[in-house]
Amino acid sequence: MILQQLAEYYDRRIEGGDTDLPEEGMSEKAIDAAIVLDRFEPGGVPEIELLGDRGGKKYKPLRMMVPAEVKRASGLVANFLWDKSAYILGVKKAKNPASGGDVEAAEREFETFRSLHLEALAGTEDRALLKLLEFLGDWTPERAVAAVASGALPAEVVDANLIFRFGRGRTRDLHRFTPACAAWAARRAAVAGAAGRCLVSGEAAPIARLHPSIKGVRGAQSSGASLVSFNLDAFTSFGKEQGANAPISERVAFAYGAVLNTLLRPDGAHRVQIGDATTVFWTDAPNPADDTASRVLANAVSPAYGLMDQDEGAEIDEAGEDGTAKKPKIDLKMSDEEAKRVRTALSALARGRTMGEAISADLHPDTRLWVLGLAPNAARLALRFWYEDRLGDAVDHVRQHWHDLRLDPGIDPGRPVSVYALLKALAPQGKLDNLPPKLGGDIMRAVLSGRPYPANMAALALMRIRADGEISALRVAMLKAWLLRRSGKEPLEREGELVSLDPAETNAGYRLGRLFAVLESLQLEALGKKVNATIRDRFYGAASATPGSIFPVLMRGSTHHAAKLRKDRGGLAHWYDTTIAEVVDGLPSNLPRHLGVEDQGRFAIGYFHQRQAMMTRAPAAVNAAEAGDDDA
Question: I want to staple 363 with a disulfide (CB 3.0 to 4.6 A). Which of 115, 276, 355, 394 is the partner?
Fold first, then answer.
């Protein structure tokens, strides 16, 4: 299913005129220099053209389409008409520079390259290809080492990707010449695998022995890792070798590899990092609607848009204190105009606008969406999650996720919080590498599908609260959302639940959390700055887990705090007495000895709600009480 959808997506983009995707048999590579064959004479040194942008602080190689890269699983294999300097010139960096120079000869690599081209270009009559064969027949790795040492060959070519150029026409790259393309097509046909029935397309075609390397997955090998491979006897059956164990045609293997590598580009619109899972989005909408939809969804869950506790999370049109618009916290790889479009679209979706209104007229609810999450696993890639749905349903689920997180005050659905922000709030030291590997993918799946959040999300939130004492809006919002979906209620039924302080809520965990917040506030008002550690610093973990043994101690301590406060601010002391009585009135006579994970979550929510309510409501009531208002 995954390979089929990727192959079909490749075909759609090619048919739509996408020039970023390589055609069959080609791949995009970063090329550093070109060997100019025009004036090469036997016994001499070829002219070198350095390519790419070398004027800035960081060198940027020239990216171009070249004959498809071979997979060097083991042994020496050369690319056609391009490769590294070890293969083309027979020179590479020395493994031990101290023993005899910075470079060394690479005889075996050069001979592999030469043999390939002598065989593939045998019988050619093209002038440019004949010049290449002349160069390969004359050149030696020893001359390459001497030329680099003398400066005749620039040092930049060592271990660089090289191509060949010939002539002064519009097309100078040798691999783009018509005879070279014909030779490459003949070479591919000559080494094609045995024909078989492709499991993806159903067509009878040459079967791929090795599948393409996938690059761009964070933590995987920089040279690429395999999504499909059979490199051990335990993975094979009935005497079949390599790809014959799950026959996929060479065309399909190329198509899914090419489009997946394009989706995984770090600067692309379709890629985002969710925990350890590198995640890509795509739809069946035409471009540019496909790119825009993917960019919006990626930013809905990525670090580009999120942390609402910071000013940068403000709306794009919200003015700062000096009257200027605040700069949005958006992926820095986007232009300012694109960043504005993404933020506007996200805000519009959060407020219930349709996709056509918010993003593009080419998007409608029945547009298909696919999401693939990949993680490193040695030389292979592990599938973290795979999601397929109507785009309309996915957007509704994301919107519901934002509403499930709602806290008043604290988290506003109109200013969405990213999955990255949630993971960061759960991570020890704020480092996502410290989280369980599957957590990001599990939360992502819950967000997109509308299913319950993973159980360990709540456990980790409670653990972090006990560890560092920070009962933040994000952690409480996660506990609240986890509880709402765990209840099994439909979205409309749970709308408005646990959003703000609910004095009528009788759950023991919620009431105890409220009581703990009131007792902490009373302590701070009575002792002021003299407190070295509040009851939250000392007792929160025990109070939320074993309230039966802790709260009697806290209540006895509160009587002393109330007595001290009564001497100076009788009205405030009266307000605390009344509030404590109101909260205690809803508790059972025998406090629970233990609270489970759900009730510990409600304890944290009750604490947060009560603390927020006292910040906004207590002053007016207290002022009235201290003024002698009997009603107060």
Answer: 355
User: From CA 273, how far away is CA 282, in angstroms rounded?
Assistant: 15
- With bands split at pLDDT 50, 70 and 90, how would you rate the model's confidence at 98? low
**Cβ count near 198 (within 10 Å):** 22
Q: Which residue has the tokens 């390979």?
A: 3
Residues 1-24: b if buried by 16+ CB within 10 A, e if exposed? ebbebbbbbbebbbeeeeeebbee
Mean of the per-residue pLDDT values for the chain?
86
Nearest C-alpha neighbor of 464 from the set 305, 301, 604: 604
Radius of gyration (Cα) for the chain, nearest Å?
Answer: 33
Quote the tokens at residue 275.
């925990």
> Residue 362 corresponds to which tokens in the numbers above?
């080419």
Q: From residue 582, how far is each of 502, 515, 518, 575, 585 by CA, in Å?
A: 12, 9, 11, 11, 5
- What percent of the chain is modeled with pLDDT above 90? 52
Q: Where are the alpha helices (DSSP H) in 231-288?
A: 250-263
CA-nearest of 103, 109, 105, 106 to 149 is: 103
- The three-state secondary structure class of 540 is helix
Q: Would you give the end-to-end CA distance of the chain in angstroms?
A: 67
Q: Is the peptide bond before 437 cis (omega within 30 degrees of 0)?
A: no
Neighbours of 189 (CB within 10 A): 9
Distances (CA, A) of 587 to 502, 510, 515, 576, 590: 14, 10, 10, 17, 8
529, with CB counted inside 10 A (0-12, 13-18, 19+), is exposed
Token pair belonging to 542: 């025990």
